[in-house]
């Protein structure tokens, strides 16, 4: 029995029937992580002592048969931008390399209350700024399907750890595709929920109006299970919806026959790899066989999505990262500083990587006097047009279908010297974040032995339909069951 290939649901059933204990499952997961992860480098921190203590507590809950949830005793990994009390939280940046939070993020606390077991914190592009997990200030993460290729970003470590069987589910965060692109590159299932569906309290912010915490799992059932646990209103985050969280798995098996999928014509243009397009077209044909209708739709402002996304990202990021000044927490280059201003300058010079500095400078420029109206304000107005595009398109169909990326995972170092080319790899995933709509990434096949990802995009707060349609696809395909051969 290979414990590392179990779905969350399978592991939960084995724990409930006492075929295995949480301590045994956790020990096996930690052992595999210590053996395999040096090749992949998906974890920044492995929290062995914390994990084993939580597993012991989970076994006690299971023995008593009280306060049990589907996540009780299940090992998971957490993106290193989400606060974990007593466990290092670095954002993969030198400026926070030794930062240990004194509190849990709301998501962390909800998972702890559910009895889940934190294995460790996963690598990412520094402060979430990147599409390949190569911008980590600590080390680069590799794709388990091919160690010479990237896992995607910025939640690359969360996706790689999931794909390699180093946890039973992982928690990522999506600012502009940061869950969906790595999920597609690594052949796992992941969701960017509706903005405000999951609390951001305790998330180290990149772009406060875009950031969405979401799970990565082996299949849609598991993804729905985790989202149901972490979603909901939070008094500590005023942007969360004060509305009930549906029981997402209740309607998974409902028929999709008669439902309509919209295909955005702007997403199927030149520049997409032939292998990726073939896989997506095959997925569309699969849905047709399931009785779904296919309808072309238009998102007319798509060409502006990338510049709008990056302008707003630069602006909000430059503002959010101003708090890292060497005076309150994290790195402080004060030893040889002449004055307070010198502390700020030296700390930020030593603590931030090149990509972070680039985006801070561009953001400060866009917000500066004389340029605010021309750039930031105009981008906010076009953001409204992007949101309306999705609302109009989704008024005539149930969901939209698109690739997660125009290519499969590219080689390490292939785009690091060309930031613009790296930004263009986000072209299919960034528009949903300014619009605030949910999107579910699913494995959709392979091209040149590398995974192809597709995404289903839905209406605000309609994750349930995404899960229903995604589950229907996974009932008749087995792409999501394929695992990379690494250390097996």
Quick structural gist:
With 488 residues, the protein is an alpha/beta fold.
Query: Using only CA atoms, what is the Rg?
Result: 21 Å
Kindly report how far apart the N and C termini lie. 12 Å
* Spans where pLDDT lies below 50 across 5 or more residues: none
Number of helices: 15
Element-level helix/strand string:
HHEHEHEHEHEEHEHEHHHHEHHEEH
Number of domains: 1
Structural class estimated from helices and strands: alpha/beta
The first-level CATH class name: Alpha Beta
CATH architecture: Alpha-Beta Complex
Q: What is the fourth-level CATH superfamily?
A: Amidase signature (AS) domain
The side-by-side strand order for the widest beta sheet comes to 1-3-2-4-6-5-10-11-9-7-8
Sequence-ordered SSE layout with sheet pairings:
Blueprint: H1 8-16, H2 22-40, E1 43-46, H3 48-64, E2 75-79, H4 106-114, E3 117-122, H5 156-163, E4 169-174, H6 180-186, E5 189-192, E6 212-217, H7 220-230, E7 260-264, H8 274-289, E8 293-297, H9 305-320, H10 340-351, H11 354-367, H12 373-393, E9 399-403, H13 419-424, H14 432-435, E10 439-447, E11 450-457, H15 463-476
Parallel strand pairs: 2-3, 2-4, 7-8, 7-9
Antiparallel strand pairs: 1-3, 4-6, 5-6, 5-10, 9-11, 10-11
Helix pairs in contact: 2-3, 5-6, 7-15, 9-11, 9-12
Structural features, described:
The structure is a single chain. By secondary structure, the chain is an alpha/beta fold. The chain has a single domain, classed as Alpha-Beta Complex (Amidase signature (AS) enzymes). The chain contains 15 helices and 11 strands. Strands 1-3-2-4-6-5-10-11-9-7-8 form an 11-stranded mixed beta sheet, sandwiched between helices. Helix 5 (156-163) packs parallel to helix 6 (180-186), helix 9 crosses helix 11 and helix 9 (305-320) crosses helix 12. It starts with 7 loop residues before the first helix and ends in a 12-residue tail after the last helix. The model has no long low-confidence stretch (mean pLDDT 95).
């Amino acid at each position: 029995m290979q414990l590392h290939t179990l779905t969350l649901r399978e592991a939960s059933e084995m724990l409930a029937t006492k075929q295995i204990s949480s301590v045994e499952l956790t020990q096996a997961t930690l052992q595999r992580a210590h053996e395999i992860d040096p090749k992949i480098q998906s974890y920044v921190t492995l929290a062995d002592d914390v994990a084993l203590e939580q597993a012991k507590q989970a076994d006690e809950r299971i023995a008593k048969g009280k306060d049990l949830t589907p996540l009780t005793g299940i090992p998971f990994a957490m993106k290193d931008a989400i606060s974990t009390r007593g466990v290092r939280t670095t954002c993969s940046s030198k400026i926070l390399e030794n930062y240990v939070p004194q509190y849990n993020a709301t998501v962390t606390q909800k998972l702890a209350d559910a009895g889940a077991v934190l294995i460790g914190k996963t690598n990412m592009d520094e402060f979430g700024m990147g599409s390949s997990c190569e911008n980590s200030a600590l080390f680069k993460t590799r794709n388990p399907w091919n160690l010479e290729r990237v896992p995607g970003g910025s939640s690359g470590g969360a996706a790689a750890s999931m794909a390699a069987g180093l946890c039973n589910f992982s928690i990522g965060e999506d600012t502009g595709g940061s869950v969906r692109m790595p999920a597609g590159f690594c052949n796992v299932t992941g969701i960017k929920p509706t903005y405000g569906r999951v609390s951001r309290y305790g998330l180290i912010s990149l772009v406060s109006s875009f950031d969405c915490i979401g799970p990565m799992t082996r299949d849609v059932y598991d993804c729905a299970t985790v989202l149901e646990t972490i979603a909901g209103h939070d008094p500590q985050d005023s942007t969360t919806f004060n509305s009930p969280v549906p029981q997402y798995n209740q309607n998974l098996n409902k028929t999709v026959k008669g439902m309509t999928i919209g295909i955005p014509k702007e997403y199927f243009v030149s520049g997409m790899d032939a292998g990726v397009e073939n896989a997506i077209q095959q997925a569309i044909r699969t849905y047709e066989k399931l009785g779904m209708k296919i309808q072309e739709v238009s998102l007319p402002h798509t060409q502006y999505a990338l510049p709008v996304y990056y302008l707003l990202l630069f602006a909000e990021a430059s503002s959010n990262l101003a708090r890292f000044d060497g005076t309150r927490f994290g790195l402080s280059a004060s030893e040889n500083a002449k004055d307070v201003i010198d502390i700020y300058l030296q700390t930020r010079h030593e603590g931030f990587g090149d990509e972070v500095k680039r985006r801070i400078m561009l953001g400060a420029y866009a917000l500066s006097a004389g340029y605010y109206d021309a750039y930031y304000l105009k981008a906010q107005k076009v953001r409204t047009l992007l949101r309306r595009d999705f609302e109009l398109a989704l008024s005539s169909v149930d969901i939209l279908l698109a690739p997660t990326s125009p290519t499969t995972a590219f080689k390490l170092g292939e785009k690091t010297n060309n930031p613009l080319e790296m930004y263009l790899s986000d072209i299919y995933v960034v528009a949903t974040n300014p619009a605030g709509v949910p999107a579910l990434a699913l494995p959709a096949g392979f091209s040149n032995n590398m995974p192809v990802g597709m995404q289903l995009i839905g209406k605000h707060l309609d994750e349930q339909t995404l899960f229903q349609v995604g589950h229907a696809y996974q009932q008749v395909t087995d792409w999501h069951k394929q695992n990379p051969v690494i250390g097996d």
